[in-house]
Amino acid sequence: MDAKLDRRAFLGLVGAGALTAGLGLAGCSPEQNGGNQAASAEPADAPAQAPAGIARKEGSETKACDVAIVGAGAAGLLAALKLTEGGKSVVVIEKAPSAAMSNFSMCGGPTACETKLQEQENATVTLDTMFTYMNEFSRTSVNGALLRNTLSHTGDAINTMLDLGIPMTLIPDSYGVGFRGRHMFDTGGEERVAPLVQAIEAAGGEFLFSTAAEKVIMEDGVAKGVQTDKGIDVMADSVVVCAGGFLGSEDMQMDRFNTKVYALGNTLSDGTGIAMVLDAGGAWDRNFAVLGNECGAVSAATEGSPFNPDWTNVNEHYGYWLFGGLYTDTAGERFINEGKIAQFPLAIGGEALLRAGKAYVIMDSDYYEAVKGDGIFAYLGQPESWVPGPMADYYKTTPENAEAHLAQAIDEGWALKADSLSEIAEKFSLDSLEATVEKYNGFCDAGADGDFGKDPAFLKAVKTAPFYAFEYVPSAWGTNGGVKVDSHLRAMDEKNNPIPGLYVAGVDQGSVYSVPYYTNEGASVGLALGSGVYVAEEIMKS
Q1: Where is this region: Disordered (predicted)?
Q2: Which end of the chain is more exposed for a tag (fewer CB within 10 A), N or C?
Q3: Strand-pair partners of 270
Q4: How far apart are CA 140 and CA 159, in angstroms?
């Protein structure tokens, strides 16, 4: 296994990453996310919650089909393919001008079980193995039957794409979960989605690109079609909503997370699909999470993409969030086992920063200079317990950039170098910082974390001036969580009854995604793909 593939494995990118860097792909181009769209102006009617009622506007044109699908991402494309191959007439409604702008077209790759690639490498992950791991991780907070049903179709999704000539590589167990589930895509953008789009069209499916779905058309409590912004009513016996979550809606972020999330992925997914289902009588489910930034963090001053073409951080001081040092909340108090964030930066790291709203990494000059020199893994003594540790130095601060990047961070207001901890506490209003550091240093001296049980390898005292602080805010490739569905992906109303004719797949449904995001990488897109195959099967037999 070469070093580049090992680094890809460590990154575990859902939105984009070292894989796309190695291929020269624009994983998160301005056309796709336009920088920090989450903090930009939203349309006046951007949905934050179920509106009082989305206006019904009769279309000037009607298209009739068996199934109307909202969204041409992972779930929508696989559902459309399976349905058209099964003889159903399908119309896919997509806001973007092509399917190459979805998070699916950019993501690193899905987790799946019982695939051809696993069989070829004698590394088959059984359905029972993957289901048991993910179900136990969720601690029964998801619909267990739906989780199993969805996972059972992930292998079909992977094998279908392989048969269409979409290349993938089965990567190592990057985070030490005990199995090799992640299938990294070897292509991205148009090259990735074109075989699926072409196969759907060849089987009779139709795409309405640059067309936004607005409302599920209901008749006597039954879903009968989709109203669009182009004056086209797509009438259908079944409607599948899979519009990709709500990363592009600051209002919905505040409603569900109580904090803004810096958008790394596709901001065209602005919660409209979820709002449509709620308008049709659907209900929220309970779990909401993000696919966090596993390349480190961002600051409140970040604009545009925080990544260089090689997927290093534009400011190298974003990377400290990955290293498991001393982290505090806005009160200057520890709030988590920081080593868990270092072990699972996308899942646990994303949730930790989202819950905190913003957080601070505190270090002394010994730590700062060591990371800049030999790197974090060497400074910690190369702990075998830190599975992704050897790759973490991809995000270390370098001697050639450290001074300029630190000056920029200080100038932008999210970092400080100070002779005393009291200066840092005053700058960021961290009232408990000095007491926290004193207590933490005691744990470091004793070699045991008495509060959170952090691996002693990550315990490095904060004693030698000057001291440093870095303020980080949440960033994510996408959101998980939305409306409630049953184990057959049927939208549920507020009385827990299915709404006839209305299905929800992908991340618009909240019944199969856990909090935090699953620690087996690629789970979000894997479940989305599996749900696309599964919802098609359910519609075919309904």
Answers
A1: 32-57
A2: N
A3: none
A4: 29
Token digits for 230?
């182009």
* Per-residue pLDDT tens over the stretch 435-494: 999 999 999 999 999 999 999 999 999 999 999 999 999 999 999 999 999 999 999 999
Q: Does residue 28 contact residue 265 with C-beta atoms inside 8 Å?
A: yes
Q: Locate 457 and state its tokens.
A: 């390898």
- Cα dihedral sign, 233-481-106-199: negative
Task: Decide if 304 contacts 524 (C-beta within 8 A).
Answer: no
CA 295 – CA 7 distance, rounded (Å): 11
Question: Cβ atoms within 10 A of the Cβ of 127, count?
Answer: 15
Q: Each residue of 230-240: pLDDT tens digit?
A: 999 999 999 99
Contact (Cβ atoms closer than 8 angstroms) between residue 351 and residue 335: no
- Give the bridge partners for 65, in sequence order: 236
SS3 of residue 427 by DSSP: helix
Cα Rg of the chain (Å, integer): 23
The verdict on pTM exceeding 0.85 is yes
Beta-bridged to residue 456, according to DSSP, are: none
Helix H or strand E encompassing 412: helix 399-412
How many of the other CB atoms lie within 10 Å of CB of 456?
Answer: 17
d(CA 104, CA 539): 23
Alpha-carbon distance of 514 to 141, in angstroms, equals 7
Provide the pairing of β-strand 232-241 with 262-263.
unpaired
216 φ/ψ sector (left φ>0, alpha ψ -120 to 50, else beta): beta
